[in-house]
Amino acid sequence: MRFRLIGPFQIIGDDGEVLPGGTPKVSQILALLLVHANDLVTPDTCIQELWPHDPPRSALNTVQTYVHHARRLLPRPEAGESPLTTRFGGYLLRVDESAIDVKVFEGLVARGRDELRAGRCEAAAETLGRALALWRGPALANVPAGGVLGGRVVHLEELRIRALELRVEAVARLGRLRELVPELRALVHDYPLNEWFHGQLIAALHQAGRRAEALAAYREVRRILRDELGLEPSPDVQWLHQRVLSPPRMPPASAVPPGMAVAMGAEEPPAGRGDDGDGVVVPWRGPSARLG
After folding, report:
1. Beta partners for 251?
2. Which residue of 77, 85, 274, 285 is most buried, as measured by CB atoms within 10 A?
3. Arithmetic mean of pLDDT, 6-20
4. Distance, CA of 179 to CA of 176 (rounded, Å)
5. With the C-alpha atoms ordered 192, 195, 199, 204, is the resulting torsion angle positive or negative?
């Protein structure tokens, strides 16, 4: 049995078929237990998830009922107890983490980050591509997300952005950034305030010899930032704009903004900046989340 939380919540049987799910509240409790698989989940955590502000007096009994129905959705081994058990202080769902797509995603992103840190760019691009392929839409798209799951959904979306950044970085280091132009166009549409994605699109178009489109991409990010935030593009993106306007030769490394060195083809990013805290020197990081 496998569990999909990235996209609509689904329980997949051993035969690959989607199994009937429970009511929204039962699915919500089961999803909560799955994101805390193999850890004890207290009744208070369940109550916070289901009723963040004003739990009813019957909250504890209602949680017990939902857990009972969630248990019935899970297969019971031929010998032994259900994987969902009641323990002193809470509930414990014992599941192999390889059966939960969220856990697999988090593991692949961490692995891809480490591969990129070690300079194994091809492996990193492949690993991060596998991680991103797990996304079938917004996490828990068909399940209510309360006080606990809501934070988890935000975390997953931020981690997805980080995975996208790392994969673009891996491909850029391989000298194949121009291959990502279609994907980068989609990313700047989906994340219009992410200057890093805009910068990578400008760089990719420039590398492909599409200067007019690169300049149009700069004008677009400048318009978005002015209209939405009343700001000008960052110094790094402005430098990139000047690089497109005057491209004859690469300036010395000391003159290159650290965020743009890889994207624009510099052999070495300038020392002293660009490390985002997880050991990977990335072309200008922008506002995206860091791995914790």
Report:
1. none
2. 285
3. 90
4. 6
5. negative
Model confidence pLDDT, tens digit, residues 272-289: 334 444 544 344 443 333
Q: How far apart are CA 82 and CA 75, in angstroms?
A: 7
Which tokens hold the place of 123? 């492996």
The Cα–Cα gap between 237 and 243 comes to: 10
In this structure, the dihedral spanned by the alpha carbons of residues 121, 123, 125 and 131, taken in order and rounded to 10 degrees, is -140
Amino acid 246: pLDDT: 85
Mean pLDDT (the chain) is 86
List, for residues 116-146, the tens digit of each pLDDT value: 999 999 999 999 999 999 999 999 999 999 9
Contact 22, 152 (CB under 8 A): no
pTM over 0.85: no
* CA 159 centroid distance within chain: 3
Looking at residue 40, the DSSP 8-state letter turns out to be: E
How long a stretch of residues is the chain? 292
Amino acid at 38: N
Please tell me the distance from the alpha carbon of residue 188 to that of residue 197, in angstroms, as a whole number.
Answer: 6
Rounded Cα distance, 225 and 193, in Å? 7
Handedness of CA 26, 32, 36, 42 (dihedral sign): negative
19: helix, coil or strand?
Answer: strand
Six-digit token pair at 154?
């935000």
Contact 225, 199 (CB under 8 A): no
